[in-house]
Amino acid sequence: MRATGTALDVLVIGAGPAGVSAALRAGALGARTALVTRGAFGGMAANDGPVPVRTLAHAARLLREARQMGAYGIEVGEPTLDYRRLLARAGEVVQEVRSHSALRGQLEAAGVVIHEHAGVARFVDAKSVETERGHRLRAGRIILCTGGVSRKLAVPGSELTETHSDAWALTSVPESMLVIGAGATGVQVASVFGAFGSRVDLFQRADRILTTEDADVSAAVAAAFRASGIGVHEGFGNIERFEQTPGGVRMTYSKDGVRQSAEASLAVIAVGWVADTSALNPGAAGVELDARGFVRVDSHLRTSAPGIYAAGDITGQMMLVPQALQAGFVAATNAVRGDVEELGNPVSPIGSFTDPEYAQVGLTEAQARAAGHDVVVAVAGFDASTRPIIDGRPAGFCKLVVHRARREVLGCHVVGERAVDLCQVAAIVIASNMKVSELARLPLSFPTYAGILGLAAARAAHALGLGAREEVDALGV
Ligand SMILES: Cc1cc2nc3c(=O)[nH]c(=O)nc-3n(C[C@H](O)[C@H](O)[C@H](O)COP(=O)(O)OP(=O)(O)OC[C@H]3O[C@@H](n4cnc5c(N)ncnc54)[C@H](O)[C@@H]3O)c2cc1C
Ligand SMILES: NC(=O)c1ccc[n+]([C@@H]2O[C@H](COP(=O)([O-])OP(=O)(O)OC[C@H]3O[C@@H](n4cnc5c(N)ncnc54)[C@H](O)[C@@H]3O)[C@@H](O)[C@H]2O)c1
């Protein structure tokens, strides 16, 4: 067992976005800090989540674009996919992102000692941790940033199912695929493999896919998926079991006493994310979990154990990279300076790189109405805007939810090309409390996707009796 000499001020466990941010902040504040992680630096975000997934989504886009070329006078023939080559490319991208990241250098410059590939770390007591590869580390403050893992289904035969990580590691595109769970992960898996030529069936227990999106977004993405050949089964019932078949796997499920089954080459489970705490032995340090199994934290990101903080997916709060970075910063600030900062509730755009893309920021229409806001809703179709028509991508819409009296945007919901980018602009509008009429009058560049936001704002301003719509429509953005 290798023990570090004197105790550290701060030990951060897990080098995903939350842990890297926490360690950087603690080091920058002058604390003697170490960062210990099971595997490679960067966590899921770099190695198994957004970076490889976005690479596959990009390949899906390239296939789509190759098929569109004929309409623009370019003949290239039907594209074919070499999946092994694509996976190699995803690996290269992960390496490239890693080698261009300034974070490791910044951590070293801040004096943070990095223990990478240390194996699983586990609490010995509330101040010390040991790792599988023999490090023993002691610190006055400990920040838990060990992220999460895919939730398993507790049904017979669940060992026959795969996770999104297994799906990325296939050596060829499966002929067919069942995707179970239609949150951000499930729809991404379904969209990518549908584009690669698998026959995909997406099973969602709730009565609509993407339950955390505006209902119009769920409906539009489901309709687009169906139009592209993906089977979308909403409110399908309960899974009874999985069984091996000669060609792959069979899922048996039932609803209202009626039993049905579906078969495919493989089944991918994407029914949610749970904290990765089993190996950490949090009980030895007095760290309590909540009913869902996430580490319970207060607004300062303090756990139930004095001197132990947690940030990122392990807390079960918004499970996204920017939020993990922010939480790591807050937890480390509090660990070093003494509980001076709260996490707060910043404006948080969310979106996914499916085809079609979808994104949101702020309140959905239903949330705004449930909160008692008197709202005006304005929708601009992509087909009413010049740029999507130029690009041959006229499907989609931008929906604004606007507070009638305050004339401020409460929410923006987009389906279609560059939806995620469009919502970043809307996030700035919301964060700055800009009036919708000011947004409508802003001379956004022409012809752009951001212009659709201006068009929706003009329609909202018109509905509020502010008279901007005709002027903007006349410009034909
Ligand atoms: C398929 C997919 C796509 C996604 N796409 C996006 C996206 O487009 N945009 C976005 O913002 N977010 C996306 N996310 C979510 C995002 O990846 C996570 O919210 C983010 O990675 C959380 O960061 P974290 O630091 O909390 O945890 P992680 O990134 O999971 O890092 C945790 C680290 O802790 C290590 N660890 C775990 N247990 C131990 C232990 N006992 N000892 C030592 N080390 C340990 C792990 O090996 C890992 O390195 C996606 C997620 C998935 C699954
Ligand atoms: N692009 C992105 O930003 C992105 C991509 C992937 C994941 N993520 C993050 O990762 C987190 C986890 O995402 P996720 O999609 O894995 O989980 P999730 O909890 O967001 O979605 C799981 C879905 O599975 C459904 N479900 C639950 N039990 C089921 C069952 N037995 N059968 C069928 N359906 C069932 C739920 O209704 C839900 O819609 C999210 O909070 C998200 O923030 C983000």
Kindly list the characteristics that best describe this protein.
477 residues; alpha/beta; FAD/NAD(P)-binding domain; Enolase-like, domain 1; 3 domains; 5-stranded antiparallel beta sheet; 22 strands; globular; binds flavin-adenine dinucleotide; binds nicotinamide-adenine-dinucleotide
Describe the structure.
The chain is 34% helix and 24% strand. By secondary structure, the protein is α/β, with parallel strands linked by helices. The chain folds into three domains: 2-149 and 274-337, FAD/NAD(P)-binding domain (3-Layer(bba) Sandwich); 158-271, FAD/NAD(P)-binding domain, CATH 3.50.50.60; 356-476, Enolase-like, domain 1 (2-Layer Sandwich), CATH 3.30.390. Strands 1, 2, 3, 4, 5, 6, 7 and 17 form an eight-stranded mixed beta sheet that branches. The radius of gyration is 24 Å and the shape is globular. The structure holds flavin-adenine dinucleotide (FAD) and nicotinamide-adenine-dinucleotide. Nicotinamide-adenine-dinucleotide binds next to helix 7, strand 10 and strand 18.
